[in-house]
Each structure stands twice: as C-alpha cells, then as structure tokens.
Amino acid sequence: MRFLVTGAAGLMGSHTVDRLLAEGHEVIGVDSYITGRREFLAYASANPRFTLIVGDLFDFTTVIEACEGVDAVFHFAANTDVRYGTDYPRRDLDQNVIVTWNILEAMRRRDIKTILTTLLPTPEDGPLPIQTSLQSASKLAAEAFISAYAQGYGIRALIFRFAAVVGERCTHGHLFDFCRQLHAHPDQLHVLGDGAVRRSYIDVADCVDAMLLALHHPTSPVEVFNVGSLTPCELTESIGWIASALNIQPAIEYSGPGPAWVGSCPVIYLDCTKLHRLGWQPKLDPEAAVRRTVHYLAANPWLLEPRA
Fold first, then answer.
1. How many C-beta atoms surround the C-beta of residue 190 within 10 A?
2. Is the whole-model pTM more than 0.70?
C-alpha cells in the first residue's frame, strides 16, 4: 500500500513511517520541520520506498500533490501546545482545523477512503465536553469535520485518543521539559502546580501497534479508540522515575495548588476496553515508558538544547 504520513518528522509520525516501511509499504512523508526533526527520518531517508515532501500543509497545493496515488492517510501534523494557546489563538485554528480540512478535501478529490488521526483524550462515546483550551477546541472542530466527511463521502475514519505519549524521539511535553531542566541544572527541578495531576503514560511504539491493529480490523465508518496505559500515575511518581533513571536527587520546587496553566487537565486516564477486545495490550507500563524516554534523551542531549 501507499501511505501519506503528515507530521512525518515528529514523534508519532517518524515512528509510524519507520513501521510502515519495515512492513514493506510505500510512504510519502510531509513535514515543515518547524517542530519536526530531520534526524528522526534518517532511517526512512535511506529507503527507496520513502519520499519526503518539505512543505506547509496550510498550502492546499502541497496537500493535493502529496495525496496523489495514496491509499490511506496517517494525519499527525498539528499544534500540540496547550500551554501557550491563549497567546497565539489563530495558530490552533490554522494548524489543527484548516490543515485537517485541507487533508480531507484532498482525500475527497483524490478518492482516498481511509484516514487515521489523533484527537482529544476524551471518552470514546462520551457527550460533548466543555473545552478549556483553544488547542482542545480546535481538535474537537477537526473531529467534527472528519466525521462529516466520513459520512458525506464514504471515508473510513479511525480516530485515536492518546494519553501522554512518550518514548524515543520525544521533544515536547512536561517529561521532556523536566529532562531539559535537569540537563541544565541536575540539582533542582521546578514543577508547575502541586504534582498531584495524574497521567497515563504510553510508549509511542505501543501507539503505533494500536493504530495498525485497528487499521486491519473491520470498523464502523467513524471509529474512536482510546490508547493509554493500564494504570495512571501521579506526576510526583514520574518525577521519582526520572531522577532514578538519571541517578540524581534534585530539590523539587512546586509552584502551588491549582492548574499548571489554562487548559491543563488534572487527570488523563483512558478506558481502552475497545482496543483490548481487538487483542491490543501495551508492552511497556508507565514506569518503563518514562525510563526509556529519559535514557534516550540522556543519550541524545542535543535534543535538549534550544533550537536555532
């Protein structure tokens, strides 16, 4: 098969590209390199079945050309930042809603019938939630467009709601931020909030397993899957794992009770029963996933340096 992967040089995108190539598929990757890393595509770039398009998916011409001859789309390109969303409100609309519409419209014109994408970590069959960040609001709007295109044009949409994705090539999120802080100052760590938030860490490789498993199973035209670990953990617990993996004992300073920033969710823990029924189970528990990420970042300190 011939797949298009957007956000190909990011965490989810690059791992998906590698897996698809390993399975013998042809892959078209698109990335602007604004947040993606060229180094993450080193393996793929040496493969003759991989083609990279460096471009902006906000440009519809780029999207329609990338979709030529494609059988299915893995759409990962998005603004994933929640913390600074209120400072740049247009960014979520452009990168999450308009870009998703560009992908869907190109799929319609190219007669591509399958899209796999990642959206809000909310209940699979829950009611419309109140949005607390512009990023989550834009993701909800994107999901609505995907559902409408699926119903209107016969597109099969597989929507994955990931918990806190970590793993090799991780370049954002609080786990990455903690490692960056400790790389610069191993004796101290500043934490926003009181450390009581709960997260369901899931390794990126387990996420790719889940997507490919669902892709090869019969589903409804629009199917939503939660992807997370079997048990959540408190942020303070994960900080202990990080310190242990780095063999340090930093002094920890908490900013105080309340949300770390506007839109910060105190608990992310997903019911993954639907995927379990298909036979999926995460290979790594949260502690193992966090430790793998920390070891990778410690071995690749260049990722922790500010980008030029």
1. 14
2. yes
